[in-house]
Amino acid sequence: MNCIFCKIAAGEIPSRKVYEDDQVAVFHDIQPQAPVHLLVIPRKHIASLNDAAPEDAELLGRLLLAARKAAEDAGIAGSGYRVINNCGKDAGQVVFHIHLHVLGGEDLGPLLAPRA
Ligand code: 5GP
Ligand code: ZN
């Protein structure tokens, strides 16, 4: 499959990996939006949250726990961090292999500001 994150998971495209196991990989975002910006992906290709099935429930939980571990290992668990999943066009999803962004290392400000 011609998917950039499948290739990163397989090691066919280089990345700065900080964690991997048989189901999950974590690596630095190539265009960081915060001092710490990591991406958490499953090895299994799931295009987006819309495409996750009930049998993926455990895997989705693993992604969240890997995000927490990545935050701990990056030293930002105590100061706080934000975990984001962009799903689809209006959320700005660019890579259609499901992933969690882990952002931190500074005050990220409010995510949900009141609309003007
Ligand atoms: P999305 O908008 O789909 O939620 O986020 C995709 C993220 O993947 C972006 O933050 C982008 O910088 C990152 N990204 C895209 N291509 C690559 C790549 O080849 N390597 C790495 N490490 N990150 C990538
Ligand atoms: Zn993929």
Summarize the structure.
Helix content is 22%, strand content 22%. It has 116 residues and is an alpha+beta fold.
How are the SSEs ordered, and which strands pair?
Elements: H1 4-10, E1 17-20, E2 24-28, E3 36-42, H2 57-74, E4 81-84, E5 100-104
Antiparallel strand pairs: 1-2, 2-3, 3-5, 4-5
The structure holds guanosine-5'-monophosphate and zinc ion.
Zinc ion is lined by residues 1, 3, 5-6, 45, 97.
Q: Describe it for me?
A:
This protein is an alpha+beta fold. The chain is 22% helix and 22% strand. The chain has 2 helices and 5 strands. The chain has helices at residues 4-10, 57-74, and strands at residues 17-20, 24-28, 36-42, 81-84, 100-104. Strands 1-2-3-5-4 form a 5-stranded antiparallel beta sheet, covered by helices on one side. The N and C termini lie far apart (43 Å). The relative contact order is 0.22. Zinc ion is lined by residues 1, 3, 5-6, 45, 97. The site of guanosine-5'-monophosphate has 13 residues, from β2.
Q: How many β-strands, per DSSP?
A: 5
CATH topology: HIT family, subunit A
Class based on secondary structure composition and strand pairing? alpha+beta
Number of domains: 1
Give Rg in angstroms: 14 Å
Note the beta-strand portion.
15-25%
Task: Kindly report the spatial arrangement of strands forming the biggest sheet.
Answer: 1-2-3-5-4
The geometry reads as globular
Architecture, CATH level 2? 2-Layer Sandwich
Name the CATH superfamily assignment.
Answer: HIT-like
Ligand list:
guanosine-5'-monophosphate, zinc ion
The DSSP helix count reads 2
| Uncertain regions spanning at least 5 consecutive residues | none
- The first-level CATH class name: Alpha Beta
Distance between the termini: 43 Å
- Percent of residues in helices: 10-25%
Largest sheet, described in full? 5 strands, antiparallel
Order of SSEs: HEEEHEE
Mean pLDDT: 97
